[in-house]
Amino acid sequence: MKSMTGFGRANFEKEGRSYNIEIKSVNHRYCDISIKMPRSISYLEEKIKKEMMANITRGKMDVSIIFENNSSKGKNIKINQELAKVYIEELRQLAKENNLEQSITLTEISKFPDVLVIQNVEEEQTIWEELQICLKQALEQLLQMRIQEGEKIKEDLQKRIHEVRKKVLEISQYSTRLVEEYVVKLETRIKEILKTDVVDQDRLNQEIVIYADKCSVEEELTRLDSHILQFENMLHQKEAIGKKIDFLIQEMNRETNTIGSKSGSLEITNLVIDIKTQLEDIREQVQNIE
Questions:
Q1: How far is CA 134 from each of CA 11, 47, 203, 234, rounded to the nearest angstrom?
Q2: pTM surpassing 0.85?
Q3: Burial class (CB in 10 A: 0-12, 13-18, 19+), 118
Q4: pLDDT tens per residue, range 230-285
Q5: Which domains are seen in the chain, by residue range?
Q6: I need a labelling partner for 61 at 20 to 30 A (CA). Which of 14, 76, 110, 184 fits?
Q7: How far apart are CA 7 and CA 140, in angstroms?
Q8: What DSSP string describes the chain?
């Protein structure tokens, strides 16, 4: 089990090129990756996302990449002649219209924006291979933290689902006594009203059957037991289970609500409240699971 919260950082340097990557991950319904990186390597964005999605299925991830290339290898300085001519022509026109002395040096022209362009003609594959090394190191740190956080969540969920199972067992025990208690109360009440010890047994049995059918929660308890077993099994799966568990909690809540609405027992009602409290705490924790 993995949490969706984590942090990873890595650095890598080779032949004057340096890479610094930081990845922050928080809860999110889907896999959302936001990358902040230099324009000079923006062509690698899709490859970076693909690499991350191969390791992570859910969470909002903010990726910060700093890339510095101090290597002379693969660099070429090019003069943007067309742009330089435009600058010269506009300056000459400005000097002519304002009767200014025309004195434009090559050095001054070279300082204008985008006249001198440093082209990095180094192979893209080389940069990607080096960046990939750094990215994998950062991802490894991130995943390790997510696993550690996931283990803590798992322990908490196991304790809470164990409490839910105990409450379900208590409800089962109470529910088996409901009909017996109802029979005694109904028979006593009939005798009080009719002021006689003679009771129509057939009519009494009919009322008992109606009541037993109305207040029976056996089906709900059976489904709830099945959901709890599925929940416990999911905690040991290696794949992403956050969405599955979230859906399972909804089903458990539905069965618990039905039990509460059927039962007229104060004890069962209190147990239902306890179960719903635990399920709500579980649901909040599940929002942190990948």
A1: 6, 14, 81, 33
A2: no
A3: exposed
A4: 999 998 888 888 889 999 999 999 999 988 887 767 888 899 999 999 999 999 99
A5: 6-71+123-147 (3.30.230), 75-119 (no CATH), 148-286 (no CATH)
A6: 14
A7: 10
A8: --BS-EEEEEEEEETTEEEEEEEEEE--SSEEEEEE--GGGGGGHHHHHHHHHTT-SSEEEEEEEEEEE---TTEEEEE-HHHHHHHHHHHHHHHHHTT------HHHHHTSTTTEEEEE-S-HHHHHHHHHHHHHHHHHHHHHHHHHHHHHHHHHHHHHHHHHHHHHHHHHHHHHHHHHHHHHHHHHHHHHHHTSS---HHHHHHHHHHHHHHH--HHHHHHHHHHHHHHHHHTT-SS--HHHHHHHHHHHHHHHHHHHHH---HHHHHHHHHHHHHHHHHHHHHTTB-
